[in-house]
Amino acid sequence: MAFEYVKGNTVFHRFDPRVKLLLAVTVIIMAVGFTDPIWLSAVFSFLIFLILYCRLRPKEVAVFLKNLSPLAALYFLFNLLFPMVTFEEITPLATVLGITISLEALVWAIGALIRFLIILVTIRVILMLTPIRDVILSLVKLKMPPEFAMAMSIGLAYLPVLVDENRKIKEALMSKGWEYRFRNPIKRFKALFMQMLIPSVFNSIRRTRDIAVTITARGFGYNIRARTYLHEIKYTTKDYIATVILVLVLCLVIYIGWYTDIAEYTFTLSLLKGA
Amino acid sequence: MVHESTVISIENVTFTYLGSKEPALKNISLKIKEGEKVLITGHAGAGKTTLCYLLNGLVPHFFRGEIKGNVYVKGYNTKQYDVSFLSHIVGMLFQDPASQLIAPTVEDELAFGAENYGIQPNEIRRRIDLYIKLLRLERYREHNPHFLSGGQQQACALGPVLVTGPEILVLDEPTSNLDPIGTNQVFDVLNELSSKERKTLIIVEHKLEELLPIVDRVVVLKKGEMVFDGKPRELIYEEELEKLGIRIPQVTLLTRKLKKKIPEIKVAMTLEEAVETLEKIFLERNIKKKKCHEAVKRGLLLKTKGKINSSKEKPIIETVNLKHVYPGGIEALRGVTLKIYDGEFVAILGQNGSGKTTLVKHFNGLLLPTEGKVYVFGKDTTKTSVTELSKYVGYVFQNPDFQICTRKVRDELEFGLRNMKLPEDEIKRRVKEVVEALHLENILDENPFSLSKGERQKVVVASVLAMKPKVLIVDEPTTGQDYRTSREMMEFYKKLNEEGKTVIIITHDMELAAEYVSRVIVLNYGKVILDGPTHKVFTQIEKLKEAFLRPPQVTMLAERLSKYGIPREILTVDTMYECLDKSLVGE
Predict the structure, then answer these.
(1) Which A residues 57-96 touch B at CB under 8 Å?
(2) Contact across the interface for B84 and A222, Cβ inside 8 Å
């Protein structure tokens, strides 16, 4: 099921969840700071290494990427046709429907696509590497209000439930002869979205009330400052070392990303033009 | 016991929910002592749950309305203390287990309450280790509670209440989703807790047969009023209570009726008591086995109900060595071969997680076999769409909330018909038919989501029936309903069956299955272990036990009295009465 912790005993599994969060932040900042496809590919390779090394069910990640592909394609096209930068010079490659596609735009769009994937895969990988409980604990340790952390925890615990519930709704609808497998994607989307929206919304309202009643009756809010946590998280030597390394990397990334242009899309471009 | 102190004191409370005209509770006065075990029962909508809400302050703090009178919990007036404070003293388990699971793992779920009260992690861990065993959830410590079976979810929802360790436990239908033996296990756990730790127990339940021998006291509600408050022993003499939709143990009904003819008979509360008092009469009157047997054979019984198939007919549903493996490797069905014939009334029984729902989902193509074949009206389901099959096989799911997809009852009833692309006048005609059959006239323009659960269930059934399927599958039609509603529903399905529809129900309710259906299929771990006419299946007590099931009380009584010539195949109180009447009283 999606968003579930995958057990393991690699060094990455054993890091304190705060280190894992810092790792995720570092990778995401790389994705934001870099625009060059080669640099970004290097970052993406690191994620692939992480998935294989920690055995984070590579097949499921592949399915995840496959499901994302329509959205990713859209994002790529958008960046290709309407790049968010102005290019100094333009090397036209082709003209589609009156819009000129340039080499610069292509390089930019490839970079954009990889960034997009890095951000989504990073979130996915960190959640597979960290039990939800640990994510919440680190947020609480990082001084997030417990109410907010609790809301996040419940939300994350419910994600697989919602997936399951959608399946049930779909099955019930199908049992009444409902058809949604239209060829036409707009028709399909309309059938799925409109018909499933009503039960989903009403169930969510009811569920919200039930959860509120339950957590109140289990004493949530009794004395929130004195709340204890069954699991404690502790920084060990390896966590300190990892933190120092990550902070250094982060500084470097910020320096490269914001104060130099070596990780800009122009890097690949110049290589291509040089060749 | 000496010096029992009162822990709960309800003083003349009347409560009306905001926006409601009728009070949900009227003039309730009740004092509960420390360590007492109290059963609260009554028909659906009698105010049982509202009474529970009073005890931890959810009424009036969360569910608002007008309240008169006072409630004291260990001396604290609930009006002046908030829910999270009172919950430290009164732990509450709500009705629907799935709606109260909030944590990502079972362990976190169990710890949740204790963490809120600032109990030290070591102590929480100690308590979790203790209760997780008691609740049989050790293996699932790191699992997401939402993916446990219904029974395990119920155990998991009870967990945080126990780990928090309140003195008073309020449990609202703690076994509604459980099979008979699972039910007994939960009650055993509760009984053990209350005697070991002197917890005060307040249980809302319909299952009197299991609870009367355990509890000290019974409170019966009727339309918000308390109509009975006394010992279980006193309750069994109250004939009026039967009319309230309360399920009186079968042996009680039987002995009470017999007592009118044979005054020496004692009204029984448990199976053992019934056996004792009846055996005594058999011995005293020195009734010979033979004479009894003759008497039995002569007039009566075992009028086999419903239709029994003949092997010449063609089955309408057939599965051949059906196996189903869910993604993730869970083997839900391990080779099921069966045939269902036109016009049958079949019950599929089995413990939680035995594969019942998985099996019936193959009957309309929602699931396809991993191995083996399923034929519905001769069509291979792998080659036929669900849309096509839905014209023949109607399926009513367990939870109505996932099946309602429009904002008006009328639209809901028309939904399936529109999918079938029927002409407008035909749609109108069919809607009219089901509306009349199920008395939905007054709610046609309502939003289905604002109806009560029972009504929502009815709307769902109506919307499926409007499609006029030849086969109707109903998943747990009586779960969480009171006895009277359950019977009404079974009567309705019986009528449909008599009109020629094939009806397949999934149920945990042995008594109702025994009384209504003609054929029973018992599943255990994905295999059919029993399949045959109801009276033949229900006499295989040992085999049923394997599947965590138990025949109805009268059938077990028949088994115990079989040495006096009582046939084992008795399924209902009426047949048993007729039979005992003939053999004990004679002509």
Answers:
(1) none
(2) yes
Number of inter-chain CB pairs under 8 A, A vs B: 179
B165 is written with which tokens?
């360790």
Average pLDDT over residues B537-563: 92
Whether B95 contacts chain A with CB within 8 A: no
pLDDT 10s digits, A124-150? 899 899 988 888 888 888 888 888 888
Q: Decide the pairing of beta strands B317-325 and B371-376.
A: antiparallel
With a CB cutoff of 8 Å and minimum separation 6, the contacts of B420 are A177, B391, B467
The closest of B355, B378, B375 to B365, measured between CA atoms, is: B375
| Own/partner long-range contacts of B16-19 (Cβ < 8 Å, ≥24 apart) | B16/B65, B16/B66, B17/B50, B17/B63, B17/B64, B17/B65, B18/B63, B18/B64, B18/B65, B18/B66
Residue A73 has a CB neighbour count (10 Å cut-off) of 11
Backbone angles phi, psi at A231, to 5 degrees: -100, 135
Verify whether the Cβ–Cβ distance B115 to A176 is below 8 Å. Answer: no
What are B32's strand-pairing partners?
B8
Contact present, B462 and B354 (Cβ < 8 Å): no
When CB atoms are compared, the residue of A202, A203, A229 closest to B121 is A229
Look at residues A155, A169, A174, A176 and name the one whose alpha carbon lies nearest to residue A197: A169
Beta-bridge partner residues of B373:
B320
Decide if B323 contacts B369 (C-beta within 8 A).
yes
The confidence band for B1, taking pLDDT boundaries of 50, 70 and 90, is: very low
Helix, strand, coil shares of chain B as percentages rounded to 5? Answer: 45, 20, 35
| Inter-chain residue contact A227 with B116, CB threshold 8 Å | yes
Locus of tokens 């239209």:
A182
Q: Kindly report the three-state secondary structure assignment for every residue of B281-338.
A: HHHHCCCCHHHHHHHHHHHCCCCCCCCCCCCCCCCCEEEEEEEEECCCCCEEEEEEEE
Q: Chain-centre distance of CA B184, in angstroms? A: 13
pLDDT tens string B145-154: 988 877 788 8
Residue A95: phi and psi, rounded to 5, are: -125, 120
Q: CA B496 to CA B434: how far, in whole Å?
A: 12
Is the distance from CB of B576 to CB of B561 less than 8 angstroms? no
Contact B259, B265 (CB under 8 A): yes
Burial of A194 (0-12, 13-18, 19+ CB in 10 A): exposed
Spatial distance between the Cα atoms of A122 and A131, rounded to a whole number of angstroms: 15
- Report residue B25's pLDDT band, with 50, 70 and 90 as the boundaries: very high
How far is residue A46's CA from residue B62's CA, in Å, rounded to a whole number? 50
Structure tokens at B536: 């033949």
Using CB atoms, which residue from A158, A178, A228 is nearest to B419?
A178
The HSE-up count of residue B62 (CA atoms within 13 Å, CB side) is: 21
Task: Evaluate whether B252 touches B236 at the Cβ level (below 8 Å).
Answer: yes
Q: Which helix (H) or strand (E) holds B280?
A: helix B271-284
Give the Cα separation of B82 and B80 in Å (integer). Answer: 7
Encoded tokens for A168: 């049930």
DSSP code for B84: H
Q: Are B106 and B145 in contact (CB under 8 A)?
A: yes
Which residues make Cβ contacts (< 8 Å) with residue A58, sequence separation at least 6? A51, A52
Contact (Cβ atoms closer than 8 angstroms) between residue A73 and residue A95: no
A155: contact with B, CB 8 A cutoff: no
The separation between the first and the last C-alpha atoms of chain A, rounded to the nearest angstrom, is: 46
Q: What is the CA radius of gyration of chain B?
A: 25
CA–CA gap between residue B572 and residue B515 (Å, rounded): 6
**Secondary structure of B393-416 as H, E, C letters:** EEEECCCHHHCCCCCCHHHHHHHH
Backbone angles phi, psi at A106, to 5 degrees: -65, -45
| pTM of the entire predicted model | 0.84
